[in-house]
Amino acid sequence: MGSVAPESLRLSEHGAQLYDSALTSSELTSLTDVVKQLPPDQAGIRIHGVAGIQRFIEPGTAAASIASAELGPKCRPVRAILFDKTPQTNWALGWHQDRTIVVQERIEVEGYGPWTMKNGLIHVEPPFELLATMITVRIHLDPTPPGNAPLLIAPGSHRYGRIPIADIPEVARRCGTVACLAEAGDVWAYSTPILHASEAAVGPVHRRVLQVDYSAESLPNNLEWLGV
Q1: pLDDT at residue 13 above 60?
Q2: pLDDT band per the 50, 70, 90 thresholds, residue 1
Q3: Among 15, 69, 117, 206, which residue's beta carbon has the most beta carbons within 10 A?
Q4: Residue 106 DSSP class
């Protein structure tokens, strides 16, 4: 795909888009206060049943409106993770696709698996066709300049389907790399299967991002989304 300026990316075409100042200053302050409840110095906290989170991601909010513009009014938040990078949690992650969802209970369904347990929550890899219908929204609580480990994405890679691990470096090279720079209150949205990566921060400070997956789909054979 070659080089694409971050501000030129469009969710419908490139699989990612920046929404400047999607949260008001009061919403940002309120969400930051909610997040302060969560345990500090953890790289990623999988969120379920945290008081106060829903009012920032439910229908009618900025995050949900971004997702519903692509997925329709039936979409809802189905998973949330808070990521942070501090001197204690300054990690790097290579190119990969997100391939799991969180469900209420394990029910064996053809095409779903393998199963894993993360932070006490049941995860399963669904058919790729389901992932391809999902949108991931990242709400930035802190500035994310080049040195503060912005998410790296490969625009257009969501159109390659489930990419074999051995082919990921070549697909990422072919699609090019965009750093998802952001200010506090900005939102990045991307097609859930897009290739993405993250480097360690330079001189790490907080880089809190509330990442929420949205789906408008129902699961088969009594499988149920866990939700947020």
Answers
A1: yes
A2: low
A3: 15
A4: -
Residue 151 vs residues 53, 109, 117, 194, 206: alpha-carbon distances, Å: 22, 33, 25, 12, 14
pTM above the 0.90 mark?
Answer: yes
Q: Are 113 and 195 in contact (CB under 8 A)?
A: no
- pLDDT per residue as tens digits for the range 17-38: 999 999 999 999 999 999 998 8
Strand partners, 44: 83
- Give DSSP secondary structure letters for 30-69: HHHHHHTTSPSS-SEEEESS-TTTGGGTSTTSHHHHHHHH
- How far apart CA 133 and CA 84 sit, in angstroms, is 27
Task: Give the span between the Cα atoms of 126 and 109, in whole angstroms.
Answer: 9
Q: How many CB atoms lie within 10 A of CB 5?
A: 7
Torsion (CA) 101, 156, 206, 212 in degrees, nearest 10: -30
> Of all helices (H) and strands (E), which one includes residue 28?
helix 25-35
Per DSSP, the residues of 121-179 read EEEE---HHHHTT-EEEEEESS-B-GGG--EEE-TTGGGG-S--GGGHHHHHHHH--EE
How deeply is 36 buried, as exposed, middle or buried, from its count of CB atoms within 10 A (0-12, 13-18, 19+)? exposed
What structural domains and CATH numbers belong to the chain? 18-215 (2.60.120.620)
Three-state secondary-structure class, residue 16: strand
* 78 vs 167: CA distance, rounded Å: 29
